[in-house]
Amino acid sequence: MIKFDKLQGQTIGILGLARSGKAALKPLLSSNIKVIAWDDSEEILNQIKEEFHDQSENLLITPIEEEIWSRANAFLVSPGIPMYYPAEHKLYKLAKSNNIPLHCDIEFLYQQMMNTKARFIGITGTNGKSTTTALINHVLKCTNVNSEIGGNIGAPVMALNSLDRGYYVLELSSFQLDLLEKTRFDIAVCLTINPDHLDRYDTFERYVAAKKRIFDNQEAGDFAIISIDNHTTTKIMNETIAKKKAAVIPISKDKQIDGGIGVIDGILYDDYKSKKQYDVSNINSLMGQHNGENMAAAFASCVAAGIEPDNVIHSFKSYKSLPHRMDLFHTFNNINFINDSKATNADSTYWALQTFDNIYWIAGGISKDYGVKLLKPFFEKITHAYLIGAAAESFASVLVKHDVPYTIATTLVNAVSIIKSQNIESGNVLLSPACSSFDQWKDYQERGDTFIKLVQSIWHK
Questions:
Q1: How far is CA 67 from the centre of its chain?
Q2: Which H or E run includes 130?
């Protein structure tokens, strides 16, 4: 556990106690720091009061309307709480009027570790962040480099271990980037950016501006690894080059790049370091064109961290897929079952549909952005669609125009039961919802776990 001795004598206000906020309590209180905290959930508040009942001297659970909040030295805010849009949160107004810093947990971690030999790798983008983050950390572990993984993946960062040297490998959402100030990433990765989370930003441009913050504090000697696979990130790359600070390494999933890393049809082209080509076509845990971008980004990051290119490729081969991301978890006779529950928007589902054929597609939930119009190029690959959740009717209205057979199954349980009743002999049963899960599930993990259990209980050997 990290000791936050730089904050001793201060009072820290924590808003949101479900995950990152709760994880911050133990190290802060153990460091003899006074904490005031609040959450909108009565259930969570009761859990916190019970778990930390012996810390009442340093922990005050109280609504943010109380005057003591205005005397805090800094605020730690859960990234799940909107601060700016669609309206300014009352804590944001309080912070501005009292000149109190408003940060996420990553900023607290960085400020504690900034003068040590620990280094920071940050990964952002719209899709692929989790796989790229996990892949980088996997390579570091395989090559005996100390590392801790967290942020928007794995453990909250204030629950991570202290590193004397090595890398914190952090997945970063736009919401977390909005709440950073001094954090400097030795290696910063920006994957392709597409419209997303527009319920939290009034324009796409503001969403992009949040993503660009990952490069704000970089200096000479740092590395900026940036996709050039769409106009938005190519523009970011050119802006970063113009700053003449961090060394820029361009990456792509469909082209070779002078001085960069490209992955095309299962071949990784390294024109940055080794000037060699590597066959990565048989790594089943990284199948699909979208994983070309993830491999290019991870390769560039690890080489920038000082790992030999051949060792990076060797480590790729032992990587296992993340749960809920194009995970071919079960096969029965000639039927494959793929859990892609983490595909919470159409852009993510795009890659799953591109990768497979003869698809029995389970989709639906709370739709984002433009529904499933983006997926039209792959409609002919769908043998039958099973629509669930709030988006079922709207998805059906698109599919019917393109002669895609579908059934409105309403729930995941019904969808799996219907597929079983159809006695299919071969194909790919794919849960890739193109939607968030919150209409019927706690999160995409619960949705994916349920799918796995249903399949394994019905199609067992």
A1: 36
A2: helix 129-142
Q: How confident is the model at residue 237 (pLDDT cuts 50, 70, 90)?
A: very high
> Quick check: 412 and 450 in contact, CB under 8 A?
yes
CA–CA–CA angle 137, 23, 51 (5° rounding): 145
- How far is the C-alpha of 65 from the C-alpha of 52, rounded, in Å? 22
Residue 42 to residues 38, 53, 297, Cα–Cα distance (Å): 10, 16, 42
Domains identified in the chain and CATH numbers = 5-103 (3.40.50.720), 106-316 (3.40.1190.10), 327-458 (3.90.190.20)
- CA distance linking residue 201 with residue 193, whole number of Å: 14
pTM: 0.84
Give 372 or 381, the one with higher predicted confidence.
381
DSSP 153: S
170-210 pLDDT, tens per residue? 999 999 999 999 999 999 999 999 887 667 888 999 999 99
* Beta-ladder partners of 360: 384, 429
Query: For residues 74 and 171, is the Cβ–Cβ distance under 8 A?
Result: no
Separation of CA 32 from chain center: 32
Average pLDDT, the chain: 94
**Rg, the chain, Cα only:** 23
Pair type for strands 435-436 and 366-367: antiparallel
Report the C-alpha gap between 124 and 169 in whole angstroms. Answer: 11
DSSP state of 37: E
pLDDT digits (tens, 9 = 90+) for 145-177: 999 999 988 889 999 999 989 999 999 999 999
- DSSP lists the bridge partners of residue 150 as 155, 170
Q: What pLDDT is recorded for position 461?
A: 59
